[in-house]
Amino acid sequence: MNLTGAQESDGAILLDRLLPPALAFVVLVALLAAIFVLDKLTELTPYQHLYYLPILLAGVRLGYGGGISAALAAVLLYHLANPHVLSFGYEQSDVVQIALFIAVGVTSATLASQSRRMHALAGTDDLTGLRNLRSFETGLRTLLRSARPDGSSVAFVVIDVDRLKALNDVHGHLAGAEAVRTVGRIIGEHLPPGAIACRYGGDEFAIAIPRWDALRTKEFAEELRDAVLRSAPVLAGVEFPAGTLTISAGVATTRPGTPAASSADADSIAGVDLFRTADRALYAAKAAGRNCVA
Description:
By secondary structure, the chain is an alpha+beta fold. It folds into 2 domains: 14-122, no CATH class; 133-287, Reverse transcriptase/Diguanylate cyclase domain (Alpha-Beta Plaits), CATH 3.30.70. It is 59% helix and 10% strand. The chain has helices at 14-18, 21-41, 52-81, 84-88, 92-122, 133-147, 164-171, 173-190, 214-230, 264-287; strands at residues 154-161, 196-199, 204-210, 234-235, 238-239, 247-253. The strands form 2 sheets. Strands 2-3-1-6 form a 4-stranded antiparallel β-sheet, with helices on both faces. It has a two-stranded antiparallel ribbon with strand order 4-5. Strand 4 (234-235) and strand 5 form a beta hairpin. Helix 2 (21-41) packs across helix 3 (52-81). The model is unreliable at 2-10 (pLDDT under 50).
């Protein structure tokens, strides 16, 4: 599925993809140890600036705790490798060096945190808090790629809020927007582990679920439909009774089969086919009278 034409991107920071936290910790310890040995062997040669590398790594990948801990470890190792610093007394440059270690750890963690937050906001739908279409497409390609090695299925649900235009016409667009937000919240609350969801239009939603068959997915869609039907929403400050909001849903799944070679084009084509199949089922649900799953 690639309706936006966006290029695939799986994370805001490259290190997030290359180094899982456990591996990052191992690399951090190895770097600190290697720099300590080099610093101790070369005696008075000022190699302490190399400690910035593990401090930066820790701040970016392990957050504030990691950055500050790495900075304090660097200070300790520097003193162990150069005991003459304590013997001869501190100079102003030594104090500045320690302060810089800590500042680099905190600053790198702050910048990495802000980068992740901006990336998350860029992939989030403002109204519902679910993914937006661009982020959903990337996630769907990832699910399809992950399903290829063992030939497992990926389930897809397309949802439409019934008669939203009538709600807008009678109660105003603010009520309609809050109706969409309510449905998005219910979807988020019921989302299975590993699943992804987005709002891809005014009142249309899409959900992708790994390793689910058609029957299980239809039961899930029915649970969502029932949850929306039973909700008593507050729209534009007005309390509405249960049954005010209903949804229609179309369900489709990829066919489990022989593992196939993965490619970006193949994943995009498979995503589009999956979406179209579920969308046709959605039209069938609406033609059957709405408030149902097809």
